[in-house]
Structures are given as C-alpha cells and as structure tokens.
C-alpha cells in the first residue's frame, strides 16, 4: 500500500495528517463519514491503567521555587513514564482511547468468538507493564506506580457534536466494570472484572479471588497467548491508505497517506489550542506548562431505563448545549468519558488563546447555564452535577510520540471531580473559584463539608446559585472594605487630592460659584489598589458627615437590566435592606411627601420591584414617553434627596467625554515608592520586620504594584522561602535610625505564630484578619501599646538557602498576563515574545534585527495593534503623564521619541516641569516612527519570556548579545568608557570581546542617542568647565571666591544647555542590563558577571540603590556557586571557571557603597573590609598594629613626595582606583561610628592619599585631598583644614576642562558649605550651598 514520495508539499501534508492522527484513537481515525449522531456496536477488551503519584509530582513541580523550572522537567518525567506504558499497549495492538488525567484507557476490538484469546493477550500486556513500569522513582523524590483493571464485553461507540466540534465516547457495561475493577486494585495489581473472568481462558490465567467480589486478581499467565498481534494490526484500518511500514513505528495510524477530506474530519475532534500549534508547525512542547486554569466537571446521570439509541441522542444533545455554553464563556470541552454509570464532560477555562482575568466568573456562569440547559432539554436525565475548581495545574500534551493528547493533571482536577460526585444536583465550587470570581456573596451558599477520597482539607465548599434564588434590591457590597486598623499606604497624594476636591466642592456649592469640580476619577492598572483606595474614600467620607452611596458592579451585573440604576436608587432611598415590596413601599412613601412626585412613583415599579398603583397620567403614556418620564423622575428624585436645584437629565455615559469634562479631575495611580513596599509587606504579613533580601525582592519584582506584592509574598511563604517567627524583645536600633528616624504608620500584627500563618492564608483569600496594631519605622515596628505584655512581636525571616532570584512568577499574576497575551494574534504574540527576550525597554532597530522576516508594512501593522492592545508604549513617555490610551484611540499611538531630540531642547528655556508635552504619533502614513518602546507592564514581559523553551532562549540571547556588543556602553556626555574604571583591563579585554570604542557611536540605537547624528547641537562636552587661565581662587575673600565660582558655573551651564540630559539611564536600560541578561541566557559566565557588575555600578551612579543591590545579590549567588563548584546559574556552560580577585573585590565594594548609601553602616564596613583584603590593601584590626601601620604610611607618604612616579599600567591602575574608593568610605565609617575611631580613620585616609599618589592622576590626588579637607574638619583640626582649603583652591584652578574637574569642584563647594555651617557662618553656608 505504499506510495512513492512526492514533493515537499506532499511530505508536509503527510506529516500534518500524522500529527493530527496522533491526537485521536484508531476508533475515530478509521471512522466512516456518517451523519451525526450515530452509534456503532462492537465487542472488545478494555485496559484501564491508573498511575498513582502524578498528582503529587505535579504539585511538587508547581510549588517549586526555582525560576524556569517546572513545565519542561515535568513534561519529560510524565511522558517518559506514560510513554513506556503506552509503548507496551501499542506493541500489543491496543488503541489508546483517551488519557483521563493520570489514567490511560486502552481498547482492543475483536469478534465475540476470539475474545477469550484476546483477554489472555491483554493480561500478558498488563503483566509486561507491571514488570517494566510498576514502580519508578523520579528525580524530585516522587514515586510513580500503576494499577490495572481489565474488562471485556459488548461496547458502543457514540459520535456526537456539530459541524465544528465533534466528540466521541465509548459506553457499555464493560466501561463501568473496568473502572470498578481498577478501584479494587492497589499499586502493582491487575484486576479482571467479573465479565472478563467469565469470558477468559480460566485454565491459562492464575488468579486470587476476593471475598464477596466476583472480580479476581491476576497472579501470572501460564502460557503465551495464541492471539496474533501482527495479523490483528494488519486487519485494522484497511479502509484507509497507509505508507509502507517504517522501522520503529508501532502504530499503523501514524503512517496515513495524505487525505484532505479525512484530515478535515479528524481536525473536528481536536481542540483549537492544539490545532493552532500543528498548523504553525510548532513543537507541541510549547503547550506544556504549569498554568492557572478553571476546571469544570459536568456529570449526567440518566434514569437507566432508556435504550442505547436514546442515551446516545441525550449525550449528543448535552454535548451541543455544553459546547455552546463553553464557547460563549471562552471555555473548551477537553474530553468526554463515561464515569460512575454516567457521562462526564471535562471542560477547561483559561487555556492558551482563551485566557481571561475573570475566567472563574465565566466558568460559573457556563456551569449554571449547562445545568439549566440539560435539565430543560434532556428528559431521560435523572440529575446533573457540576464541580468547579480554580488553581495551578499541569496543562500539556501527555503520552507517546505516536499517540498523545492534551490534558490537565493536578490536585485541582481531582478536587473538581470529587465535588461533582459528592455534591450531586448542583453547581459546587471551591474557595479559590468563589474568591477569584469576585461575585457578591448573594450568589453563593456555603455547603457542609464531606469526606472525599484523596482530598485533604479542601477548605470551604460553595454552591453557586445565581441571584434567581435570592431576589435583592440595591445590595452591592464593596469587594474590599476598609479595615479599622489598616492604614492605606503610599496613597497620601491621592487622599490629599480627594480631601481638597471635597472641600472645594462644598465651598463652591455654598457660595453658588459653580467653579468647583464635581467628578474625581482615580484610574490605574489592575492591582494598583483602586478598590482599597475607594474603600478609604468611603470610610473618610462617612466620618466627615457626608452621605455615601458606594456601588461596585460585578461582571454578571452587566446582564441584569437597570442594575446600576436600581442599586443607586435603593441606596438613595435606603431600601436595600428591606425584605419585601411592602416594606420598600413604606420606606419610600415616608421620604416622598409631595403629591406630584407620589403620582409618579409607579414609574419605579420595575426598577425597585415595588407595586405602586399606576396613575392615570402614567397609564396614558406610550413606551417612549414613559421611558423619558422615568429618566426625568429619577433625576428629580436625586435632586430632591440631595436638596439641590434640578439639573439637566441628559448625560453622556462615555468615559472619554467624562474625562474631558471641564469639571472632572482625573488622577492616574502610580506604582508605590520602594520605601512603602516594606511597610506594605509588614502590613500584609502582620509582622514587625522583614529581611532586607525580601524587601529588595519585592521592590524589584512587584514594580510598586500592591497586588503583585501581595501575591509575591504569598508565593514566598508557600514555597517556604520565608517563615514567621516570634521575637520577645526589640533589637537595638541601627545608627542611621537614631540619626534619621522614619515616619510611623499603623500596621496590624497577629498574636501568635499559629495565628500568623492563618493570617496569611486569610489575607490571600481576602478574609477578615485581626486588628492588633503596631508602629512601623522603616523596616522595624515597635508596639504602640506598651502595657500589652502578652502581645507578641512577629518577624519575617528567610530560610537557609533561599534564592530569591529563582522565584518564578506567581501563577495568579501569570494568569493575568496570559489573559492579555491570549487576546493577541499569533504574529503579534511572536513579536511580544521576541521583545521579551530583548528586555523591558527595547528599540525598533533591534526588534527588526532579530525578526528579519517582518516586512515594513507587517511590522507597522503589528506594532500598531500592540500599542492599541496596551502591550507596548513609547519608551520615551514620561511616567507622570495621564494615560488616556485605553479610552481614546488618538492617544493609543502616542510617541515622545522626537521630544528627546537635542534640537528641540536647545530652544527650550522654560521650566521642564511647567512644560506641557504634546506627543507625536508612533505610526504615520503606514510607517513606524517610534524608535524606543517598552512593555506597559513588566508582568507581561516576564510571562512572555517564560513561554520560550530553554534552547530557543539561548539562541535568541546569543543573537541579541552579538548585536549589542557593537553598540554604546556609555553616553556621550560622560567622561569614561566604563562605569567601573579599568574594568575591562582588569579582567582582560579578550574575555569581554567588545568591538570598537565604547563611547556612543552613530551606529547606536537611533532613538536612544539621536544626538550623535547632530554634532552641531552638542556644543562643549557636558561638564566642560571654562576656568580663566590667570584666575586663582583665594580662600580669604569669600566674595571674590564666589564670583569666580559663578563664572565657572555659568560657563559650564552655557555648554551644558545644549546637552543637559545625561543618557546613562537609557544606556543602562537598553544596553547594560539587557547585555547581562543575554549573557546569562547564553550561559557565558565571564561576560554575564562583567555586565552585571557594570549594571550595578551604573545603578549606583544614577542613585538606583535598590536595583543595584538586587544585581549585587545575584552576583553574590554566582560567586558562591562558582566557589562551591556548582554551576554559576541554571543556563551556565559546563566546566569549572575562576573569577578574578578584582571582580570579587568590586562586588564587595559596590555592595558596601549601596549599604552605606542606605544607612547600613555596619554591614557596609564588612563589605569594604573584604574588598580591601582581596585588593591587597587591608586595614589592621588591632590598635597596636594599626598604630605601626600609620607610622609606616606616613613615612611612605614622605618618600612618595620626593619620587617622580610613572603612570601604572591599566590593570594596576584599576586596582588602585578600587583601593581609593574603599579607603574613602572606610575613614568616613570610622568617623561616624557611635564611638568614633579617629586613629583608624587617620590610617585609612593616609593610605588613601598614598594610593592616589601612586596613580599619578591629578584628579585622584585632588579627590584624596578633598577627603583630607573634610576629615580635618571632622576632627576639629582648624589649621589643617584651612591649609587643605588653600591647597585645593590652587589645584582646582589648574585642572583640565573635564567632567571630573567640575565634579571635584562641586565636591569642594559642598565641603565648604558643610564646614561654614558647622562653624556657624550661616550666610556663607547658604551662598556656597546655592553654588553647589
């Protein structure tokens, strides 16, 4: 039956039909093209293999705290084990009907006369499976085991569905028996059902009998069965053409010849999610992931009196009805199977392409709609039961390469099945579905708990009832209520705006000026705390003697007619708590006394569910008039209740028009400041302190979004990275806390460790928590109530070995990002995924470099769509601007790249803050104009990045790194080529392999530094100082000194005016940080370390201390791994490597500098000490040795003065610079300690001066003298201070025109300001301060 191979197109078609056939059983592959529904009867043998340990394995991977670890490893583990089992079944001629989670159902069809032989052959297959796959240990410690049930008899195949989607199910007594047989088995057993035992060759199979059971347990088979597998396989599928036999192909259906009609027929049985990957010729491994989804099990129990044809028709009707409900609510039917004498549908919400943020709500609505449909349309139905759960599960293609299916495995899948069976006749759901649906409590009724097999502590179980069970009027509770002792953190600006607007409104109304604002809109992204802000507004308004009518709409309220109007009217008339219509009427009449208004109350009958008599006037109205009169009457009611003048009833519901209204104030919520994140974390956990590592992790990963912070904390706690412990006494405050006390806020703390763990769980579910309070002070909380001796202070601590940089994105947050990505077209998704490889901020030039197949038109259309979808924004857009892009298409394509051009900045003399920036358009005339873009949310970027397989990431990272190696590494306005002086020379240029000059070039990203193409706009280099050649700075004449300084600064500003914006921050975002990530992705440790250190130094240079510390912690992990012989990071190339002392010392020095900047003096000193030890310039620890060392350094200082030194080589110079940096901090630390160590400070500064002399660089020598100047003032050495001051005047006047010189002058002016202030000369200090 073979056929000669044709062209490549035919080959592709052949591969496609084989790929499709791998997802469906032979029972479907070889089906006739009949009209559905239909039933086909046959005899056969069923084998049901149930694998234990899959759920535990899935949970272990889902709880793994290692970033990038989970789906790939889990897929390999699952498919390795299942593939081995399926190989035995396929080799025995079996047909895999389906993969039911962690179970496999296989079928052999045969004539009734040969069924005895076939049973013996299937028993032998089961024994082979137990011998080879009975017990298997996995790499993560879980043990997989299998138990098998076998049944035989008459079966029926039911084909159902519609023209778009079809489903199949096998029904019959044998199906029920095989599941009962498997239920009697334990791991390692093979059980024959009663009917199989009756039909088999009993003389050939040794068995053990069960007490009171007709089923038997197989021990062994006495002789090989006579059933011929080869002949059986040849007899299958003779109605379809196949290719010749292929070595190693154990399934005949994998050799199908191209057949367009059959291909289209088979596609109807496969989920759209899988078909998209097959059509795109992408590996199915792309679909394997740990994914948050909502699972819906629907079970139909029939009366049992119906014939097979009637049951087939009932299942067909149910399949069509369920399919419509699923499609309507963005869900999918995954599979249909018989379960516990009923038909069960497994439906999934949140799969790739269907993800929605409100999928739990959609799932509940679909489940309820399915129940109503089945109960109404299927007469033979006894009961319909639905179980709904939400949570992380493994979603992916499971099985053998020749026969596999897309399925879901996990604890939540098992729980949904158990809910379906233990709560019959209703829609039941778990706690997570109830919580994430965000539906009012009126939709749910809590159910009594039941013991369920394999389920431990499922939490509260709810029945979803919809509002048809309870009629409510005006009951729309807030999803977030302001808790008494929980202060809203980080929103002081917003609350100040609200208070100011309310005051202005009340004053304007009282004076009748009509100049006040009457609408305040707070906008922001998901998770920014809008609900908490609203709760705070409601709380403050109610305390301020204002009438408050809070109203929050749920997703399902959209479909309820007049719901918003009903709710507001009910709140206005205070009838929301009334139990019936008579009580509502009584309350309304007590507030409306005017006869003309009472006459119109009947207009509210349908809205408020009352029964006022219809007046003659109203009865004569037509529908249009009645609708208009109802609107006018409602406005009249509002004005009457507010005791205000009537207003026009015309209103425009469009958000954009409301935003642009002259009396509307719109305020965009921004991310929280880093300092607030620590306070928020303490508030969420109910602790008095969190570790610095946790604070840094939250600042970096939450990006200031409160909800992200909450979910990250939950992830840390559940993955056991952190734990909560009790402290009895408060620790000593740090030095910086004594000097700079922080603000206090109210934060709740629990009363015990046990309750604190419950607190976290409740908080994550949005439940009530305790109301103990304490006062937060930076990272520390002190109890307010000192008399409460029984109160326990709790702290959050990190577990040993916790690696925060490996924490994956919490699945709840990942679900939000996936919901956004799944709305995009395939080509748009590819662009987003490639941009995610580049980094958070990226350029159009680089994007097109790694996507060369994108034409200019296609690129423009794709990027326009992504801007409109809110995926990308212009990378030059200022953060403070109001974002109107989501409500007006005009603003969706806003681009600010042109405003970065120097030509525009030259002519701008006005204040930057007062200037209104008018954006251009990112796309004009079909051409893309925006040069720099960024992700609107980092969450989408990180999620899109995780969608790549590891090998694919490596290739893309290598391409990106090679591209960026030729680009800028420092902006044109700054003096040096690297942020760390001599870094490349110290580690070896060959290791880094940087091409060309590191200064910014014309070939750099156009939008990043477009200034290079307009050199005439540059003027002098930033920082160039123009010191008159004959001018000298005199210390005695303050006026003359200030006049000369004025001239210097004016000359500098004249040049800097042409190039006043340093672009180092853009170089950091677009080049350095991406380079570090790319080399990590490639696995090149030396380059990754180099760029991580450069990024850290750049962050410190730009005062991004928290970001710098996060990179330095990552560097420390790399160094620790290398030292212990482990892989530096997950993607690192194999082989041992050594890190040079310079980079180790640099890491310690940079970390010490960050710690010093953030006030952690003791920790900073330890870092500098380690750095100096590695640099070969350590400070003695004992006073005696320090005194001897000081004498030596002073003698060395005298000797160096008399020598003419040569400039050291670059590598040696780099070491000297690092020594100077460390020593400069060491003397300051010694001086500011609680007990100053002046001798040690004197030694450090003397060593610094000698090291500066060794560099033979004038700027380093001046820098050391500046430190001496400051040191002498700190020690009270007035004469020495004046001497150094005169010396500095002379040296600064002789410096060349460079940025370093100007920087040194600014340091000198600062010193003068501090010294004059300490001496009591306030006027002089102010004058110097202005210049500085």
TrEMBL record:
PROSITE patterns named among the record's database cross-references: GUANYLATE_CYCLASE_2, TPR
GO biological process: cyclic nucleotide biosynthetic process; intracellular signal transduction
CDD domains: CHD (cd07302)
Residue stretches making up the Guanylate cyclase domain: 45-182, 342-420
Pfam families xrefs: Guanylate_cyc
SUPFAM superfamilies according to UniProt: Nucleotide cyclase
Ranges for the TPR repeats: 1145-1178
Molecular-function annotations in GO: adenylate cyclase activity; ATP binding
Record has Nucleotide-binding as a keyword: yes
Signal peptide annotation: none
One Gene Ontology CC term in the entry: cytoplasm
Disordered: annotated segments: 905-925
Keywords in alphabetical order: ATP-binding, Lyase, Nucleotide-binding, TPR repeat
Annotated InterPro entries: A/G_cyclase (IPR001054), Nucleotide_cyclase (IPR029787), TPR_rpt (IPR019734)
Protein name per UniProt: Guanylate cyclase domain-containing protein
Organism: Alosa alosa
